[in-house]
Protein backbone atom coordinates (compact mmCIF):
# COMPACT_ATOMS: atom_id res chain seq x y z
CA UNK A 1 0.00 0.00 0.00
CA UNK A 2 1.26 3.56 -0.73
CA UNK A 3 2.47 5.52 2.26
CA UNK A 4 0.16 8.25 3.63
CA UNK A 5 0.65 11.54 1.80
CA UNK A 6 1.07 14.77 3.75
CA UNK A 7 0.71 18.39 2.71
CA UNK A 8 4.17 19.90 2.40
CA UNK A 9 3.68 22.82 4.75
CA UNK A 10 1.63 23.60 7.82
CA UNK A 11 -0.60 26.62 7.13
CA UNK A 12 -0.25 29.64 9.36
CA UNK A 13 -3.74 30.93 8.67
CA UNK A 14 -7.17 29.80 7.56
CA UNK A 15 -8.05 28.27 4.18
CA UNK A 16 -8.08 30.88 1.37
CA UNK A 17 -11.85 30.47 0.83
CA UNK A 18 -12.63 30.80 4.54
CA UNK A 19 -14.78 33.88 5.22
CA UNK A 20 -13.26 34.49 8.66
CA UNK A 21 -9.77 35.82 8.00
CA UNK A 22 -8.59 38.61 10.25
CA UNK A 23 -10.17 40.00 13.40
CA UNK A 24 -13.87 39.84 14.08
CA UNK A 25 -15.65 43.03 12.97
CA UNK A 26 -17.72 43.53 16.12
CA UNK A 27 -19.31 46.74 14.86
CA UNK A 28 -20.75 44.91 11.86
CA UNK A 29 -21.65 41.81 13.87
CA UNK A 30 -23.56 43.89 16.42
CA UNK A 31 -25.49 45.54 13.59
CA UNK A 32 -26.51 42.11 12.35
CA UNK A 33 -27.21 40.70 15.82
CA UNK A 34 -27.75 43.46 18.43
CA UNK A 35 -27.78 40.99 21.35
CA UNK A 36 -24.02 40.56 20.88
CA UNK A 37 -23.44 44.14 22.11
CA UNK A 38 -23.93 43.04 25.72
CA UNK A 39 -20.84 40.84 25.49
CA UNK A 40 -18.45 43.14 23.62
CA UNK A 41 -15.74 44.61 25.85
CA UNK A 42 -12.95 47.11 25.16
CA UNK A 43 -9.33 46.01 25.17
CA UNK A 44 -6.53 48.04 26.80
CA UNK A 45 -5.58 49.28 23.32
CA UNK A 46 -9.12 50.52 22.71
CA UNK A 47 -10.22 47.78 20.31
CA UNK A 48 -13.38 45.72 20.72
CA UNK A 49 -13.17 42.14 21.92
CA UNK A 50 -15.22 39.45 23.63
CA UNK A 51 -14.96 37.54 26.88
CA UNK A 52 -14.33 34.17 25.26
CA UNK A 53 -14.38 32.48 28.67
CA UNK A 54 -18.13 33.22 28.92
CA UNK A 55 -20.28 30.49 27.28
CA UNK A 56 -23.11 32.98 26.71
CA UNK A 57 -20.74 35.31 24.87
CA UNK A 58 -19.44 32.49 22.66
CA UNK A 59 -23.00 31.45 21.81
CA UNK A 60 -23.97 35.04 20.97
CA UNK A 61 -20.91 35.37 18.73
CA UNK A 62 -21.77 32.17 16.87
CA UNK A 63 -25.34 33.33 16.40
CA UNK A 64 -24.11 36.60 14.88
CA UNK A 65 -21.56 34.91 12.60
CA UNK A 66 -24.10 32.39 11.33
CA UNK A 67 -26.58 35.17 10.62
CA UNK A 68 -24.09 37.45 8.86
CA UNK A 69 -22.18 34.92 6.79
CA UNK A 70 -24.46 31.91 6.36
CA UNK A 71 -28.00 33.27 6.33
CA UNK A 72 -29.15 31.50 9.50
CA UNK A 73 -31.94 33.55 11.04
CA UNK A 74 -32.49 31.43 14.14
CA UNK A 75 -29.86 29.35 15.92
CA UNK A 76 -29.69 28.11 19.49
CA UNK A 77 -28.39 25.14 21.44
CA UNK A 78 -29.24 23.83 24.91
CA UNK A 79 -27.04 24.89 27.80
CA UNK A 80 -23.94 22.71 28.07
CA UNK A 81 -23.96 21.51 24.46
CA UNK A 82 -20.94 22.02 22.20
CA UNK A 83 -20.73 25.54 20.77
CA UNK A 84 -17.83 25.20 18.32
CA UNK A 85 -15.57 27.98 17.00
CA UNK A 86 -16.92 28.64 13.52
CA UNK A 87 -13.73 29.69 11.64
CA UNK A 88 -12.04 26.35 12.34
CA UNK A 89 -15.15 24.38 11.42
CA UNK A 90 -15.40 26.29 8.15
CA UNK A 91 -11.79 25.36 7.39
CA UNK A 92 -12.63 21.64 7.56
CA UNK A 93 -15.41 22.13 4.98
CA UNK A 94 -13.16 24.02 2.57
CA UNK A 95 -10.37 21.44 2.78
CA UNK A 96 -12.98 18.73 2.28
CA UNK A 97 -14.11 20.55 -0.85
CA UNK A 98 -10.52 20.50 -2.10
CA UNK A 99 -10.49 16.72 -1.71
CA UNK A 100 -13.50 16.50 -4.00
CA UNK A 101 -12.03 18.74 -6.73
CA UNK A 102 -12.02 17.06 -10.13
CA UNK A 103 -8.30 16.71 -11.03
CA UNK A 104 -9.08 17.24 -14.72
CA UNK A 105 -11.09 20.44 -14.38
CA UNK A 106 -9.91 21.79 -11.04
CA UNK A 107 -13.51 22.56 -10.16
CA UNK A 108 -15.05 22.04 -6.70
CA UNK A 109 -18.26 20.03 -7.13
CA UNK A 110 -21.32 21.89 -5.94
CA UNK A 111 -25.02 21.23 -5.71
CA UNK A 112 -27.34 18.72 -4.15
CA UNK A 113 -25.87 15.73 -5.94
CA UNK A 114 -22.95 15.86 -3.47
CA UNK A 115 -23.85 14.05 -0.26
CA UNK A 116 -21.83 14.26 2.97
CA UNK A 117 -22.25 12.25 6.17
CA UNK A 118 -21.54 14.19 9.37
CA UNK A 119 -20.78 11.72 12.17
CA UNK A 120 -21.76 13.31 15.49
CA UNK A 121 -23.58 16.29 14.01
CA UNK A 122 -24.48 17.65 17.46
CA UNK A 123 -27.18 20.16 18.31
CA UNK A 124 -25.22 22.95 16.59
CA UNK A 125 -25.29 21.44 13.03
CA UNK A 126 -22.35 23.68 12.11
CA UNK A 127 -20.88 21.53 9.34
CA UNK A 128 -24.15 21.11 7.38
CA UNK A 129 -24.94 24.83 7.77
CA UNK A 130 -21.59 25.91 6.33
CA UNK A 131 -21.30 23.15 3.74
CA UNK A 132 -24.76 23.76 2.31
CA UNK A 133 -24.33 27.55 2.19
CA UNK A 134 -20.88 27.45 0.59
CA UNK A 135 -21.30 24.55 -1.81
CA UNK A 136 -24.97 23.57 -1.93
CA UNK A 137 -24.21 20.07 -0.65
CA UNK A 138 -26.75 17.86 1.09
CA UNK A 139 -25.95 16.31 4.47
CA UNK A 140 -26.97 13.42 6.64
CA UNK A 141 -26.12 14.07 10.29
CA UNK A 142 -25.97 11.26 12.85
CA UNK A 143 -25.83 11.41 16.63
CA UNK A 144 -26.36 9.19 19.67
CA UNK A 145 -27.96 12.09 21.54
CA UNK A 146 -31.73 12.34 21.08
CA UNK A 147 -31.85 15.90 22.44
CA UNK A 148 -29.20 17.07 19.98
CA UNK A 149 -31.21 15.63 17.09
CA UNK A 150 -34.44 17.23 18.33
CA UNK A 151 -32.74 20.63 18.53
CA UNK A 152 -31.21 20.09 15.10
CA UNK A 153 -34.62 19.36 13.59
CA UNK A 154 -35.98 22.55 15.15
CA UNK A 155 -33.05 24.45 13.64
CA UNK A 156 -33.81 23.12 10.16
CA UNK A 157 -37.52 23.90 10.55
CA UNK A 158 -36.73 27.48 11.66
CA UNK A 159 -34.45 28.28 8.71
CA UNK A 160 -35.91 27.95 5.19
CA UNK A 161 -32.41 28.03 3.68
CA UNK A 162 -31.82 24.58 5.19
CA UNK A 163 -34.93 22.98 3.68
CA UNK A 164 -33.88 19.72 2.04
CA UNK A 165 -30.25 20.25 3.05
CA UNK A 166 -30.01 18.13 6.19
CA UNK A 167 -31.46 14.79 7.26
CA UNK A 168 -30.88 13.82 10.88
CA UNK A 169 -30.61 10.19 12.03
CA UNK A 170 -30.30 8.61 15.46
CA UNK A 171 -27.35 6.28 16.04
CA UNK A 172 -28.77 3.79 18.56
CA UNK A 173 -25.43 2.09 19.28
CA UNK A 174 -23.02 4.29 21.26
CA UNK A 175 -20.12 2.14 20.06
CA UNK A 176 -20.97 2.22 16.34
CA UNK A 177 -19.93 4.79 13.77
CA UNK A 178 -21.48 3.91 10.39
CA UNK A 179 -23.27 0.66 11.16
CA UNK A 180 -26.92 1.13 11.98
CA UNK A 181 -27.31 4.49 10.24
CA UNK A 182 -26.22 3.87 6.63
CA UNK A 183 -28.98 2.48 4.43
CA UNK A 184 -28.49 -0.34 1.91
CA UNK A 185 -26.94 0.88 -1.36
CA UNK A 186 -26.65 4.41 0.05
CA UNK A 187 -23.57 6.35 -1.09
CA UNK A 188 -21.76 9.45 0.14
CA UNK A 189 -19.06 11.53 -1.48
CA UNK A 190 -17.46 12.13 1.90
CA UNK A 191 -17.83 11.61 5.62
CA UNK A 192 -16.61 14.01 8.25
CA UNK A 193 -16.25 13.89 12.01
CA UNK A 194 -14.97 15.85 14.98
CA UNK A 195 -14.24 12.87 17.27
CA UNK A 196 -14.35 12.87 21.07
CA UNK A 197 -10.94 13.97 22.31
CA UNK A 198 -10.75 12.55 25.83
CA UNK A 199 -10.87 9.00 27.18
CA UNK A 200 -13.10 9.64 30.21
CA UNK A 201 -15.32 12.22 31.89
CA UNK A 202 -12.60 12.80 34.51
CA UNK A 203 -10.01 13.55 31.83
CA UNK A 204 -12.40 15.97 30.11
CA UNK A 205 -13.04 17.77 33.40
CA UNK A 206 -9.31 18.04 34.14
CA UNK A 207 -8.76 19.57 30.70
CA UNK A 208 -11.53 22.11 31.28
CA UNK A 209 -10.04 23.11 34.64
CA UNK A 210 -6.65 23.59 32.99
CA UNK A 211 -8.18 25.89 30.36
CA UNK A 212 -9.97 27.88 33.05
CA UNK A 213 -6.70 28.40 34.92
CA UNK A 214 -5.01 29.54 31.73
CA UNK A 215 -7.86 31.99 31.05
CA UNK A 216 -7.99 33.07 34.68
CA UNK A 217 -11.68 32.29 34.88
CA UNK A 218 -11.98 29.47 37.40
CA UNK A 219 -15.35 29.96 39.10
CA UNK A 220 -15.66 27.17 41.65
CA UNK A 221 -15.97 23.44 42.11
CA UNK A 222 -17.72 22.67 38.82
CA UNK A 223 -15.80 23.69 35.68
CA UNK A 224 -17.75 25.37 32.89
CA UNK A 225 -16.18 24.90 29.44
CA UNK A 226 -16.65 28.04 27.35
CA UNK A 227 -17.40 26.01 24.23
CA UNK A 228 -19.52 23.49 26.15
CA UNK A 229 -19.90 19.84 25.28
CA UNK A 230 -21.91 16.86 26.45
CA UNK A 231 -20.26 13.61 27.56
CA UNK A 232 -20.22 11.94 24.14
CA UNK A 233 -19.09 15.15 22.47
CA UNK A 234 -16.02 15.31 24.71
CA UNK A 235 -15.00 11.77 25.59
CA UNK A 236 -15.14 8.15 24.42
CA UNK A 237 -13.82 5.03 26.21
CA UNK A 238 -10.22 4.74 25.05
CA UNK A 239 -10.18 8.30 23.74
CA UNK A 240 -9.60 9.61 20.25
CA UNK A 241 -7.34 6.73 19.23
CA UNK A 242 -9.93 4.05 20.05
CA UNK A 243 -12.76 5.99 18.43
CA UNK A 244 -10.78 6.40 15.20
CA UNK A 245 -9.66 2.77 15.22
CA UNK A 246 -13.34 1.81 15.30
CA UNK A 247 -14.13 4.31 12.57
CA UNK A 248 -11.43 2.84 10.35
CA UNK A 249 -12.67 -0.71 10.97
CA UNK A 250 -16.25 0.21 10.12
CA UNK A 251 -15.27 2.25 7.07
CA UNK A 252 -13.84 -0.93 5.52
CA UNK A 253 -17.31 -2.49 5.78
CA UNK A 254 -18.66 0.34 3.62
CA UNK A 255 -15.66 0.71 1.33
CA UNK A 256 -17.74 1.20 -1.83
CA UNK A 257 -20.33 3.42 -0.14
CA UNK A 258 -18.10 6.46 0.15
CA UNK A 259 -15.39 8.18 -1.87
CA UNK A 260 -13.51 9.89 0.98
CA UNK A 261 -13.75 9.00 4.65
CA UNK A 262 -12.38 11.88 6.71
CA UNK A 263 -11.94 12.92 10.33
CA UNK A 264 -10.25 15.55 12.41
CA UNK A 265 -7.32 14.23 14.46
CA UNK A 266 -6.34 16.42 17.40
CA UNK A 267 -3.43 14.41 18.78
CA UNK A 268 -0.47 13.76 16.52
CA UNK A 269 0.24 10.69 18.69
CA UNK A 270 -2.96 9.17 17.25
CA UNK A 271 -1.65 9.22 13.69
CA UNK A 272 0.73 6.20 13.60
CA UNK A 273 -1.91 3.82 14.93
CA UNK A 274 -4.55 5.15 12.54
CA UNK A 275 -2.18 4.83 9.57
CA UNK A 276 -1.36 1.25 10.58
CA UNK A 277 -5.03 0.33 10.84
CA UNK A 278 -5.82 1.83 7.43
CA UNK A 279 -2.91 -0.01 5.86
CA UNK A 280 -4.13 -3.35 7.25
CA UNK A 281 -7.65 -2.61 6.04
CA UNK A 282 -6.47 -1.99 2.49
CA UNK A 283 -7.02 1.74 2.06
CA UNK A 284 -5.81 2.69 -1.41
CA UNK A 285 -4.91 6.27 -0.56
CA UNK A 286 -4.44 8.14 2.74
CA UNK A 287 -3.94 11.89 3.00
CA UNK A 288 -3.12 14.10 5.97
CA UNK A 289 -4.09 17.76 5.64
CA UNK A 290 -2.74 20.16 8.31
CA UNK A 291 -4.92 23.00 9.56
CA UNK A 292 -4.04 25.92 11.81
CA UNK A 293 -5.93 28.73 13.49
CA UNK A 294 -3.66 30.98 15.49
CA UNK A 295 -1.53 28.80 17.75
CA UNK A 296 -3.84 25.79 17.47
CA UNK A 297 -2.66 23.13 15.01
CA UNK A 298 -4.85 20.23 13.97
CA UNK A 299 -5.21 18.03 10.91
CA UNK A 300 -7.66 16.12 8.75
CA UNK A 301 -6.95 12.50 7.86
CA UNK A 302 -8.73 11.28 4.73
CA UNK A 303 -8.74 7.85 3.16
CA UNK A 304 -10.39 5.99 0.31
CA UNK A 305 -10.74 2.35 -0.66
CA UNK A 306 -11.49 3.21 -4.30
CA UNK A 307 -8.79 2.60 -6.90
CA UNK A 308 -8.06 5.07 -9.71
CA UNK A 309 -10.64 3.58 -12.08
CA UNK A 310 -13.35 3.56 -9.41
CA UNK A 311 -12.53 7.15 -8.47
CA UNK A 312 -12.84 8.26 -12.09
CA UNK A 313 -16.14 6.43 -12.48
CA UNK A 314 -17.45 8.07 -9.30
CA UNK A 315 -16.52 11.56 -10.51
CA UNK A 316 -18.11 10.97 -13.91
CA UNK A 317 -21.34 9.75 -12.34
CA UNK A 318 -21.47 12.69 -9.95
CA UNK A 319 -20.77 15.11 -12.81
CA UNK A 320 -23.65 13.68 -14.82
CA UNK A 321 -25.99 13.90 -11.82
CA UNK A 322 -25.00 17.50 -11.16
CA UNK A 323 -25.55 18.41 -14.82
CA UNK A 324 -29.00 16.76 -14.72
CA UNK A 325 -29.95 18.56 -11.51
CA UNK A 326 -28.97 21.97 -12.94
CA UNK A 327 -31.16 21.45 -16.01
CA UNK A 328 -34.13 19.71 -14.39
Automatic annotation (TrEMBL):
It catalyses: adenosine(1618) in 23S rRNA + S-adenosyl-L-methionine = N(6)-methyladenosine(1618) in 23S rRNA + S-adenosyl-L-homocysteine + H(+). Residues 199-232 are annotated as: Disordered. The gene is rlmF. One of its GO terms (molecular function) is 23S rRNA (adenine(1618)-N(6))-methyltransferase activity. Pfam families: Methyltransf_10. InterPro entries: METTL16/RlmF (IPR010286), rRNA_lsu_MeTfrase_F (IPR016909), SAM-dependent_MTases_sf (IPR029063). It comes from the Bacteria. Transmembrane segments: none annotated. GO terms for biological process: rRNA base methylation. It is found in: Cytoplasm. Residues 215-227 have a biased composition (Polar residues). GO terms for cellular component: cytoplasm. Keywords: Cytoplasm, Methyltransferase, rRNA processing, S-adenosyl-L-methionine, Transferase. Gene3D superfamilies: Vaccinia Virus protein VP39. Specifically methylates the adenine in position 1618 of 23S rRNA. Its EC number is 2.1.1.181. The keyword ATP-binding does not apply. Its main location: cytoplasm. Belongs to the methyltransferase superfamily. METTL16/RlmF family. This is Ribosomal RNA large subunit methyltransferase F.
Amino acid sequence: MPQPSHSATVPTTLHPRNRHHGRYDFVQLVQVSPELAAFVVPTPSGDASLNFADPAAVKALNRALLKQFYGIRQWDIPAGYLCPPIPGRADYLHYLADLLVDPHTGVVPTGKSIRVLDVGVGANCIYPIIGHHEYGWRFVGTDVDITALRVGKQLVASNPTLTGALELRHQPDHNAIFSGVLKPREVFDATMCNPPFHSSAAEAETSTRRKERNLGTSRGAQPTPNFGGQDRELWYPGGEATFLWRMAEESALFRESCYWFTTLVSKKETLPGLYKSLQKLGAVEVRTIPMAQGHKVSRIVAWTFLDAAQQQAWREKRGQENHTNKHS
